[in-house]
Write a structure and sequence with these properties.
The chain is an alpha/beta fold. The chain has a single domain, classed as Alpha/Beta hydrolase fold, catalytic domain (Rossmann fold, 3-Layer(aba) Sandwich). It is 43% helix and 17% strand. The chain contains twelve helices and eight strands. The protein has helices at residues 40-44, 69-83, 95-106, 126-129, 131-140, 142-151, 160-170, 175-189, 191-198, 215-219, 239-242, 244-257, and strands at residues 2-6, 9-16, 23-26, 49-52, 88-93, 111-117, 205-209, 228-231. Strands 1-2-4-3-5-6-7-8 form an eight-stranded mixed beta sheet. α10 links the parallel β7 (205-209) and β8 (228-231). α2 packs across α3 (95-106), α5 crosses α6 and α8 crosses α9.
């Protein structure tokens, strides 16, 4: 475990395991790198695994601004440069999937492949038209508003302990981080913005959704024939936590296709 100063921020990260094809894990909005505790021991048996807390989240420092996908990606790029590791399989959940996609677009030499878990991109543009009431609610009561928002990502299949953990942890995220990060996400979240941007990813991509509406859209954007997009319908937003063994096996199997 370590802290690294990259530009204006200090990032908390862990760097464990060894082997070829290092793996990077990036959490989602209002979360931290503990989100990957079901994955890190598994993949550390055969890979170097790096998990990072984004600026403003977890144990990383909290600047006044910079809570936008491309800035998060620039922070991570600086960390990877410092660690001098080979190109990574960058795995991201939700906002983290937007961040690792930005990393693959802006610094492609750092990324061997992407694993995007219920990604926060290709959202219908109509969502942007309804963001004003959300911003007003965030200004009035950030924590309850975001708790209500992320609760939409749970289903009857979501274990109660995951809901409790997520909602309690969220309450400790600085309010300006909650507000800025969700407003800034709109710059790459909606389909009209994210579709042309995602076409710039040239590496293989594995995308796993909780519902199938965006699967076909993303398949049309892939630039590598080894890419896959699929859904686990009926699962909640934190697929890798609800079905960790299946998720780990899926990623393991897909990674073997990159060797051919």
């Amino acid at each position: 475990m370590a802290f690294a100063r990259v530009g204006e921020v200090e990032l908390f990260y862990t760097d464990e395991g060894e082997g070829e094809s290092p793996m990077l894990f990036v959490h989602g909005y209002s979360c931290d790198s503990h989100d990957w505790i079901w994955q890190l021991p598994h993949f550390a048996r055969t890979h170097r695994v790096i998990a990072v807390d984004l600026r403003g989240h977890g144990r990383s420092s909290v600047p006044d601004d910079g809570f936008e996908a491309r800035t998060f990606a620039a922070d991570i790029a600086a960390l990877l440069d410092r660690l001098s590791c080979d190109p990574v399989v960058a795995t991201g959940h939700s906002l983290g999937a937007v961040v690792v996609s930005a990393l693959a677009v802006e610094r492609p030499s750092l990324v061997r492949a992407l694993v995007c878990v219920d990604p926060g991109y290709l959202v219908a543009d109509e969502v942007a038209t309804s963001i004003k009431p959300l911003i007003d609610a965030l200004d009035a009561a950030p924590v309850p508003t975001v708790q209500a928002l992320i609760s939409r990502g749970y289903t009857d299949a979501t274990p109660a302990h995951l809901r409790t953990w997520h909602l309690r942890r969220l309450a400790g995220v600085p309010e300006h981080v909650l507000c800025q990060a969700i407003v800034n996400l709109n710059t790459l979240a909606v389909r009209s913005a994210s579709e042309p941007y995602l076409r710039r990813r040239s590496c293989p991509v594995l995308s796993l959704y909780a519902a199938g509406e965006r699967v076909g859209i993303e398949r049309a954007l892939f630039g590598d024939d080894r890419s896959r997009a699929l859904s686990w319908d009926g699962c909640g937003h934190w697929l890798h936590q609800e079905r960790p063994s299946e998720f780990n096996a899926l990623v393991d199997d897909w990674l073997t296709t990159l060797e051919t």
